[in-house]
Structure formats: C-alpha cells, structure tokens
Design a protein that fits this description.
There is one protein chain. This protein has about 475 residues and is of the alpha/beta class. The chain has 2 domains: about 280 residues, Aldehyde Dehydrogenase, Chain A, domain 1, CATH 3.40.605.10; about 190 residues, Aldehyde Dehydrogenase, Chain A, domain 2 (3-Layer(aba) Sandwich), CATH 3.40.309. Helix content is about 40%, strand content about 20%. The strands form 6 sheets. Strands 14-15-16-13-12-18-19 form a 7-stranded mixed sheet, sandwiched between helices. It has a 6-stranded mixed sheet with strand order 9-8-7-10-11-21, sandwiched between helices. A 3-stranded antiparallel sheet has the order 5-6-22, with no helix packed on it. Helix 2 crosses helix 6. The longest helix is centred in the first third of the chain and has 22 residues.
Length: about 475
C-alpha cells in the first residue's frame, strides 16, 4: 500500500502560539522508511523562529507558572485523555514516519498517556519541608520547590511519541514552559502530541515546537537567556556536547544517553522463558532502543543450545512495513542506519566472529536489515564497544558469575542491564553488583511511568519519569521569615 493513500498531516512548527507551515530555514523531506517514499516536506526553523520560540516560552512561563498544582494536574490529565482518544491516529502517523509495527506504536501511545497520568498526579506532590528554627525571632524556615523555568527539550526518532511525552509531561506538570525539538525524521508524531496539550488548555506560548539544523537549534536555544534548562535524549557524543554548552552557562542539564545493555543468563535460568523474552526485547523497534539488550553472556552449559535456538528464531522473524499486520520487525528508521549495521558486521567478521544469522541488508524498497546474531566476537570488535542501535545481538559464553558481572560492567556505559535466574540470592546479587541505572531480573520491562529512567557512567545525568523525573524540572528555594522590628 502506498503511503500516499494513508492520511499523513502536513508537518508544521509551533512558535509563539502559531502553527507555521513555512519557515526561514528552508525545508526537508520526511520519508517513509518502509518504502523510501516522501511523506511530506517539513519546514525548518531558522534563527528568527528559534529566537521567537525561546522568547515565547519565556512569556508562556509567566502565565503557566501561576497556575495552581491542581490546575496543572487537570490540564495534563486532559492531555492524557486526548492521547487515548487519538491513539490510532497518532500511532498510524508514528508508524508511517518511523517504521515500527503498528502494534508497537499503539502500545507506545498508550504508554504516553500513562506517563502523563502519573506526572499530572505528581504535580500535586511537589512537596517542600518545614525546618524548626534554631535562632530566636525566626518564625518559619521553609524549603520550597519551584519550576525551573523555560526548558529546551531535544528528542530522537526512535520513540517519537514516548520521549516527547516524558519531557512535556514532566516539565508542564512542574510548572515549566517548553521549546521541544523532535527529530526531523519524525516530526508529525510530536506535532500531534503538542496539539493535544494545546487542546487540553496549556497556554499557547507555553509549548513551542521547532525543527531545523540540530546543532544550530540546540546551540541557539541553550545560549538564549530565556532558557533555564536543557533535557536531551540522544547519543553519548551529543550529550557531552550539550552538557558542555549548559555548563558554560551554568544551566541545568538532564541527559538520557546511549547504552550497551548486557544480559546474563545464569545456569539455573528458565532458558525457554529467557529466550522468548530476549527475542522480543532485542528486535523490538528493530533494536533501535537505548536500553536494548546487546551483549548476551550465556552460561556455557546453555550457550550452544541458546545460540542455535536464538539465531533460528531471529531468522524466522517476519519483516515488512509497520502497517502490515503480519510484520514482526519493521525497517530501520533511515538509510544511515543501514551503513552503520554494515560497519559493525563487517568489522566483527574481519576480526574472526561467526555470523550465526543475518548480517546483510534486505533487497527491495525501504531500509530493512536482517536480524543478526554474532558469536565469538572479540572484545576489540566495534559491536562489543559501541552501541549498534539496530537488530544485532552478540553471544558470549561464560563459566563463573564473577566473570559475567565483570564483563557486563566493563564498558563506560550503564543504562539498562538484564539477567535471568531462578535463585533469589543470585537475583539480589546481580541487582546489587551490576553497574546500571536500571536492572531487570527475569524481565525487560524496566521503563514504567512510576519508575525513574536514567543511566550511570556515560549513559546519562539525571532521570526521567517517576517522581525523580519531575524533580529535575524544579529549583530548590530556602525561605525564612523572622519577627519584624
């Protein structure tokens, strides 16, 4: 089916309360990664629109911050309900421009609404505290949390509904205004989410959306005096750059960056359950997930069986357009990802690794790459050192749990990590000793609205979601009141 037969909205920017279908930065094509067709042309913000968005966020903040916590709760909750009402429309647009199967897109939009529900409730719980005075004549000492101010938020293309919803929901629930820059590959999903917030009652100038040259947009927004905080979901390299820009201006920064998630399969694990769970987690969104499992450390007693069954199941996955109900894995999101997959596989092969399945592009239209399983990759292989961000899994045997934990912790990344065991003592040991912001034992569902999402080491600074995610959009203020005269 041609994408031209499926409704796709005309992308626009939202600046100072207006939707802009033309902007001074020119335009670029938005592609359907399953077919290579052009869906629409996206207007790109130039310096004028970027400045106008930041200035509007400053004005919008003065309006929105004065809303009570109860009022903010009601608006963000209304946005959640609108997302639920519009789930199929948003999910279809998401699949068209990003490529993942529609079933995954539907779950993603549903989770967005749940995230907004939780953060809306947390708006009513931005508690401070009272501290007993130690000096005579002081009536009260209060520690308050107040919104930090206008936020510049940057999100990538792999979860074009979930990631903007996290940042918009948390910032707005805390009382901040936002300028959000979604990925230029997937602008319309974010546009529909912004529209839901506007329809729910967020002041028009409190939510701005711009797309453009990523380096220009980020540097100009962070430098703008109206912006008080930047929040990024992206690569480690970009996170370091934006963190440096924020540090130079003493502005708050939250970075949810890349990972290289290990999976430890213990000798007592339920191998059938672990295999089924690992297959679904590894090839979800074609492996384009920051917490996607990559390095599978399988106890030697199970390794040969695991390698045969895992590679056979991966090879049997049905690839196709996301709107096809039979599709189990969609395309990569853009052509550059295909080049990256080739680079990882060629390097592994050159270093003596065995390619158990996949390792090649799929002929035909779209950006499809075969699910790939690699064995015997040396530690010097690129795929053992860098996040492939695609449908590639690496298998390694181990003999002792100490060895597996040491190898899991060996990289400078620590976002997600996973393990399978039926021994309670081992489960607690793994949870204690693995160096990652999120550790899932016997499951991969570490991303939940109620739980903080963030990494250790080079995988990030700060958290999103959970109560902790909201607190990152606040400043602490000490207020003391003494007896007059």
């Amino acid at each position: 089916m041609s994408s031209m037969n499926v409704p796709y909205p005309q992308p626009a920017l939202h600046v100072a309360g207006q939707w802009l279908h033309q902007a001074s930065g020119g335009e670029r094509a938005v592609m359907n990664p399953a077919t290579g067709e052009v869906l629409a042309m996206l207007p790109l913000a130039g310096p004028a629109e970027i400045a106008a968005a930041a200035e509007a966020a400053g004005r919008g903040f003065q309006v929105w911050r004065r809303q009570s916590a109860q009022q903010r709760y009601a608006v963000v909750r209304k946005a959640a309900e609108l997302l639920r009402e519009r789930t199929r429309q948003i999910a279809t647009v998401l699949t068209l421009e990003q490529g993942k199967p529609l079933s995954e897109s539907l779950r993603e939009v549903g989770l967005c609404a749940d995230i907004l529900d939780f953060q809306a409730e947390e708006a009513k719980r931005l508690y401070g505290r009272l501290v007993p005075p130690r000096v005579e004549g002081i009536l009260s000492q209060s520690v308050l949390r107040q919104p930090i101010g206008p936020v510049a938020a940057f999100t990538p293309w792999n979860f074009p509904a979930n990631l903007p919803s996290r940042k918009l929901g948390s910032a707005l629930a805390a009382g901040c205004s936002v300028v959000i820059k979604p990925a230029e590959e997937t602008p319309a999903t974010c546009m529909l989410i912004v529209q839901a917030f506007l329809d729910a009652g967020v002041p028009p100038e409190a939510v701005n959306m711009v797309c453009g040259d990523p380096a220009q947009v980020s540097s100009q927004l962070i430098a703008h005096p109206a912006i008080r905080k930047a929040s990024l979901t992206g690569s480690v390299a970009v996170g370091k750059l934006l963190g440096q820009l924020c540090a130079e201006r003493v502005k708050r920064f939250t970075g949810e960056l890349g990972g290289h998630a290990p999976v430890i399969v213990c000798p007592d694990a339920d191998v059938g359950f672990a295999l089924k769970s690992s297959l679904a987690a590894k090839f979800r969104n074609a492996g384009q997930v920051c917490a996607s499992p990559i390095r599978f450390y399988v106890h030697r007693s199970h390794h040969a069986d695991w390698a045969a069954r895992f590679s056979a199941a991966a090879q049997a996955l049905r690839l196709g357009p996301g709107l096809d109900g039979n599709t189990q894995m969609g395309p990569l999101s853009h052509a550059r990802r295909l080049d990256d997959m080739d680079r990882f596989v060629d390097d592994a092969r050159d270093q003596g690794s065995r390619i158990l399945c996949g390792g090649h592009r799929i002929e035909g239209p779209g950006y499809f790459y075969a699910p790939t399983v690699i064995a015997d990759a040396p530690d010097t292989a690129l795929v053992q050192q860098q996040e492939p961000f695609g449908p590639i899994a690496v298998l390694q045997p181990y003999d002792e749990l100490d060895e597996a934990i040491a190898r899991a912790n060996a990289l400078p990344y620590g976002l997600g990590a996973y393990a399978f065991t039926r021994d309670l003592h081992t489960a607690h040991r793994l949870g204690e000793e693995i160096e990652a912001g999120m550790v899932g034992i016997n499951h991969f569902g570490v991303s939940q609205p109620e739980m903080p999402f963030g990494g250790w080491k080079e995988s990030g600074i700060g958290q999103e979601m959970g109560a902790e995610g909201l607190l990152h959009y606040t400043e602490i203020k000490t207020v003391t009141v003494g007896v007059p005269g």
